[in-house]
Amino acid sequence: MKTVKPDTPKVGILGGGLSGISYAFFSSRMGYDVTVLEKEKAIGGLMRSINEDGFVFDIGGSHVIFSKDKEILDLMLRLLGENKVRNRRNTAILYKGRLVKYPFENGLSNLPLTENISCLIHFLLARIKRRKDHRNLKEFFYNSFGRAISEKYLIPYNEKIWKMRVEDISLDFIGRLPNPKVLDVIKASLGVGSEGYVHQLYFYYPRKGGIQYLVESLRKKVDGEIITGFEVKNVKKESDKWVVSNGYEENVFDNIVSTVPLQEAVKIFNASKEVSNDVSHLKYNSLLTVAIGLKELNIKNLSWLYIPDRDIHSHRISFPSNFSPENAPEGKASILAEITVKPDDPLFKKNSEEIADMVVEELDRLKIFSKDDVIFSRAFKIKYAYPLLDSYYREKIEKIKAFFKEIGVKLVGRFAEFKYINMDDAIRNVLTHLKISNLQELDFLY
Ligand SMILES: Cc1cc2nc3c(=O)[nH]c(=O)nc-3n(C[C@H](O)[C@H](O)[C@H](O)COP(=O)(O)OP(=O)(O)OC[C@H]3O[C@@H](n4cnc5c(N)ncnc54)[C@H](O)[C@@H]3O)c2cc1C
Asked: Domain boundary at 138, 162, 192, which?
């Protein structure tokens, strides 16, 4: 039991995903008296994992550990300790029934010869023209990759995942834009091996427990209370205290940190009509994931398979049994299919069984496995998966944040701040909020 000095402010952290648990870890070790309130029975948020008859699935979509931020990568690996595996990415794109190496421009020799040549010529023409006047993602693709690669893969895949026309996607929406080397693409066309996106070429993953293990290992180090199954419904200020209620019980705090999605926060904090209206127009995509346990797979050793084909619902499938041998019973295999949808898409409202059956049928049709080999399948619905950072967002977000700042609530996390952040960014973001610039200074870490 932690002994807290009587005058230490009590901090209530709403949401027990990676941001909430990281915030609890660092701030509790800095001496704050923290309590996390999480609505689900388990912590983890987007990083939740389940174990179904020995099959482990990351139900918030396929998650792996990689980062350019060495300090945070090192922290994540330390958290995993011995419980980790390191894998080399083996990713392909399913194009007209063929497996094309990922990224597409590094797999040109896997295409039929005429298509390979057409992709290379258009790519070289685009590079000779050196046009840099792109105003949106479509123009960027044409200027940087040429017409053939854009139309065969980049446009259909990106429209499938973002559920938007590429001409409507602004460039800062995407963040880091790929810029393949000319020589690498020529080599790829000739069938000489080259790699793209090298910062993700090797990745780490927990040997046991799925990606949730990372959050669980942080949780063990939190010097405070973590309450699960507590869905925050209402927060109000009484005198100088925050009273947080789930409709039955109340918890009282001096300070509040909210990691829950803004769309929920405006209801919880009873925001003004104007702010609620601004938040209601922020665009985001939801996600359906379908976990499939199998006797065997027709495709061996892949990490991910990208599916640009518009007639198939899944845009990406991952192979958890290839991430870690502990992710499936011995000799068995597994798949996690992902489908992004707009939150109001009727598909999102269908029952889980119907969605799972549809995906199994489609993947059987693609000959990825035979449906006779399916041991079980189950679909999961993730309402808040991808924030879409369009021009409306840019116009409104500062005003929305100003409201929460004014009432004294700190917003931290992917959907709480409406930021497109990965796990490494989420941890770094927490450190920034806590004004920690150098992890080496934290004697409790090492
Ligand atoms: C499909 C997909 C794949 C990804 N893959 C990777 C990857 O490979 N590598 C990587 O680094 N990152 C990846 N990410 C990003 C990563 O998932 C996020 O950066 C990280 O999980 C964000 O954590 P968070 O705590 O900010 O948000 P969340 O995980 O969304 O946490 C919010 C928490 O708030 C809780 N909550 C909501 N409402 C309430 C309420 N009313 N009361 C109490 N609690 C509430 C939720 O249950 C949840 O636990 C991926 C994300 C997605 C969607």
From this structure: 192
